[in-house]
Amino acid sequence: MSTTVSPPAQGSRRRRSGNTDRGFNRVFRWIAVGAGATILAVLAAVALFLVSEAWPAIMASPEELAEGVPRYPEDTSLLAYLGPLIYGTILAAVLALFLAVPISMGIALFISHYAPRRLSQLLGALVDLLAAIPSVIYGLWGFFTLAPVLTPIWMWLNDNLGWIPLWGGNASPTGRSMATVGVVLAIMILPIITAVSREVFLQTPKLHEEAALALGATRWEVVKTAVLPFGRSGVISASMLGLGRALGETMAVLMILSPGFTYSLDILAAGQHQTIAAYIAADFPESTGLGVNTLIAAGLALFVITLAVNMAARWVVARRKDFSGAN
């Protein structure tokens, strides 16, 4: 004998199910809100710590800084003291970005649109593997292997193209220069830019590519007219991620670069430049009192630079988002 569920029982079950779903939705909403608020709270906590700990150095006079900070030049303001560090940090990051972006875009386009499927999967895995290598390994490799290889190239550039400001001065015979640091940083940020650009290029609508092919476009023309315009904002975002990594890199720069406090454009010379992160790592173990506050003030400057770079990237991406391949 078959049994049937009466309509009131079915309605009661639906109401219980609806109440349960609303409860889950409410819990999930609060979890999501809490996760977003946590990010803001951590960012605010970091900013508050940097400002509070750097404030004694910011408010100190040049005489107090000269007494409390080792190797601090007399009659020099904090901003003038940190200026060469800020310059060196930006110079290293710009050099790395200038070298890495074209190569990363080429690798991403080859993996996404030119390579056979098996080869593209292998290359994609290898590129992702580069991002997992610790920075100290890059530093050791750059110091012991890459610098001796690049030194003859830097010497040739200095001898034959020394009239160009970047390659003038006295090239370092050890290769411990900003040029070598730029190459190492470019290799370090290359997998980040390549991975993000590759995923963006793969999202190009097939209808756009097929339409270009139907009009008689070559493979390069398809990339030029459909893939690159669609992925422009993604490439900018990827470049800014790589730039953020280059700005904050510590160990590789510390191990390779021969430091100096100048505004020189001679990237082949040693003892000319230093970055904020490498400066903090080198001086922090021996610093006390006002010296620690000065190092944290340098960290605050790096924090502001990184925020400014990311805000600029968001502004550029927002201007480019009018083009959408999904439209």
UniProtKB/TrEMBL annotation:
Identify the SUPFAM superfamilies for this entry: MetI-like (SSF161098)
Q: Locate the region Disordered.
A: 1-20
Q: Which residues form the signal peptide?
A: none
Give the transmembrane ranges: 27-51, 85-111, 123-156, 176-196, 250-270, 290-313
Bilayer topology term:
Multi-pass membrane protein
Residues of the ABC transmembrane type-1 domain? 86-313
Q: Which UniProt keywords apply?
A: Cell membrane, Membrane, Phosphate transport, Transmembrane, Transmembrane helix, Transport
What the protein does? Answer: Part of the binding-protein-dependent transport system for phosphate; probably responsible for the translocation of the substrate across the membrane.
> What does the similarity note say?
Belongs to the binding-protein-dependent transport system permease family. CysTW subfamily.
Name of the protein:
Phosphate transport system permease protein
Q: Which organism does this sequence originate in? A: Isoptericola haloaureus
